[in-house]
Amino acid sequence: MPSALDRLLGQSLESMIREKLGQKTCEKIETRLHQRYSMDLAASIDDFHALDATLREFFASGADAIEEDFANRLISINTPAKGRRWLSIANEELAELIVATYGDRDKRIILEVAFNKPSVILDILETARIPKSSGYRLINQLVEMGFLTEQGYAESSDGKKVNKYTALFEKVNIEIDTNGLIFNADTPLPSIPTVEVLLKENILNESQIIRVLLRGKKL
Q1: 31-35: long-range contacts at Cβ-Cβ below 8 A with a sequence spacing of 24 or more?
Q2: N or C: which end of the chain has fewer CB within 10 A?
C-alpha cells in the first residue's frame, strides 16, 4: 500500500510522465509493466520501484536524467541550517490542489484537529464540530488524496482495532504574488502560488517516490 505522501505526489507525477515520455513510449512501458508486474502505469507509481526498474530497461543509465527531471518538476527539499526539512512544491497542479484543500474551511479544520491529536474518524469530527453526514465524505477524500495518513490504532467498544489518522503536513506556507496580475475582460488570472510544506518526521523516508527520485541525495 502506498504511503500517504506517495498518493499525494502520484496524482501529479502520472500526468508529468505521460507528458514527458509521450503516448507511444508510455504504451510500451505499460505493456512491459503488465508483463513483469501485472500493473498499469498508475499502479506502478504506487509501487515506484517497479516503474524505476522498467524505466531502466528502456533507457538504461539515461533513466537517471529522466527521474531527476521528474524530481525537479515535482518537488525540492529545503533544509535551513539547524532546521526541519521543508518540501517546496514545483508542480503547478499539485500546488493548486494543496491550496484548494487548505482553502476549504471544513477540510482545513479536520486536518488541524487530526494533526494536533491523531484520532479515529468519529473523534476528529466531534472535535471539529463537523456533521457526520458530510464529515465522513470529507475525511475519505483527504485519505484518498494523501492529506490524512494512518497513525496507530484505537480499540472500539467491541474490542476491534480502529485506525487513527493524522495530517500529513505540520505546516503549510502559501504565497501568492498579487503583482502583475493578468486581466481579461472578465476575470483576473493570478500567478502560480508558491507552496512549501513541513512534513511530519519520517514521512519522507516512507515515500518510495522520494527515495527513488532523490536517489543519492541526503534526505
Answers
A1: 32/57, 32/58
A2: N
